[in-house]
Amino acid sequence: MTETAKSVGEKDAAEQKGRADTKIKRVIQEAEIIEPEDNKETSEKKEIEELENTESAVDNETGSNDEPDQDGVCSDDNTNDKVDKEASEDVDSDDNNAKRQREQESTDEYSSCDDTEEIKKKLADDIFLESVREQVENCKEELQSALRKSLREEFKIIVERQVAKANRRRRWNNFFHDIVIILLVVVAVYFGYCLYDVRYFDFMQPNCEQNTTCSDGKVDDDIQTAGPVKDATWYIANYSYLFNNLQTNLSADNVMAYYLYSDDYKVGEIKPEYLLAMAYNQVMLDSSISNFMVTVTDAEMQRAFRETFGTLEYYERTDFRYGCLDFSFSKTENAFVAESVTCSTNQRRTIVENIEHIYEEGEVIYVLTNAGIYDSNEQNLYSFDNLFQPIASNIQSNDLTTYTAGMNRYQYQFKKSGDNYYFSSITKLN
Q1: pLDDT score for 279
Q2: What are residue 329's DSSP bridge partners?
Q3: How far apart are the C-alpha atoms of 26 and 29, rounded to whole Å?
Q4: Helices (H), 198-231
Q5: 72 — pLDDT class (breaks 50, 70, 90)
Q6: How many CB atoms lie within 10 A of CB 195?
Q7: How far apart are CA 46 and CA 85, in angstroms?
């Protein structure tokens, strides 16, 4: 900004100086025009003085010629002397007058020259001051204009930067705001799904929806049939057998009894010996007992296995235990054989599992149970998570249903295929 203003000021100063020189030259020319007129007057005065000098010289010559020649023209001597004296006085007077006139003219000439020089100097000074003043004013205006322009540009740049900074900050704030909202929505959906998965919202549904007994409102115009009310009691009465057919009746004093209660299992993940023990419930009444031997043919076991699980995919001919009976597969007889023994009635611990609720969703029957371990000697109730710290002490076996809060909860799923329901999986809820 300063360099631009300086170059502009130097350019204006050069132009002003040129104009001042032009004005000075013009004044000098005018002064020279005046000066010849004074010289003209002086030359005229000189001519007059020359003429007077010439006349005086002629008079002197004439006076000298009036003297008598040798031939002797007579004249009065006194008269001649008087005339000569007067003539000389006149000549002297004329000379003095001419001298004084010349001095006066010379003085006037010098005075006129001095006045001209003073006028020139004064005019030059005035012109110079005026040009300097104009240059200062021009530089002042240029500087003010450049300064205002620079200030406007700088202010515009600062404002643009601040606006851009504010826009960036607003965009980042909006971005983080959106991220936080998305995270909150994801967390809310996740927790909602978790609550739904454990059927936390079932209490909000009407009883008919909880029991899947609500009517869809589609009634035949000609025939209206009234079906049974499918409440919890109805489901327990009609579908509790699905759960009962899975009991292995293993003694709680045996570690094998805790396998099915330790984790979540699908049918394909359960060991084959436990699947065979579950299927044995279907053929237990049809098994033959002779010579203190219990025999179940392979065909009967396959039929029971298919009725329980709907497939023979996981069927294996292996040893299994049901209650206190140890079955082994005999290839010669092509059957599962076990010695007929009487189970001991002095079991210390027993697995207690009661149906809490049964409901249906679509093509799946859900059976919810409460399970624990009851020690008849100690009269203590234990959970499967801690076999040494009782959840209730000094209780009777008929009071176990009042302590379900501390027991483990399980969910059995039975999927419908055709007209029958088949065991699908077991889930440990807590």
Answers
A1: 92
A2: 336
A3: 5
A4: 207-210
A5: very low
A6: 11
A7: 27
- Give CA–CA dist 38/44, Å, rounded: 10
DSSP assignment string, 97-112: HHHHHHHHHHHHHHHH
Pairwise CA distance, residues 240 & 369, whole Å: 11
Q: Residue 138 carries which side chain, given as an amino acid letter? A: N
> Residue 161 is encoded by which pair of tokens?
């930067």
What lies within 8 Å, CB to CB, of 283 at 6+ separation is: 296, 300, 301, 303, 304
Confidence of residue 45 (pLDDT cuts 50, 70, 90): low
| Positions of E strands within 188-317 | 265-266, 288-290, 293-297
**Which neighbouring-strand residues pair with 322?**
325
Taking the C-alpha atoms of 89, 90, 93 and 98 in order, what is their torsion angle to the nearest 10 degrees? Answer: -140
Return the ∠ at Cα 106 (arms to 102 and 111), rounded to 5°.
150
Residue 408, judged by CB atoms within 10 A of its CB (0-12, 13-18, 19+), counts as: buried
In the numeric block, the tokens 């000021």 are attached to 9
Write the pLDDT tens digit of every residue in 183-225.
999 999 998 888 877 777 665 655 555 555 555 544 444 444 4
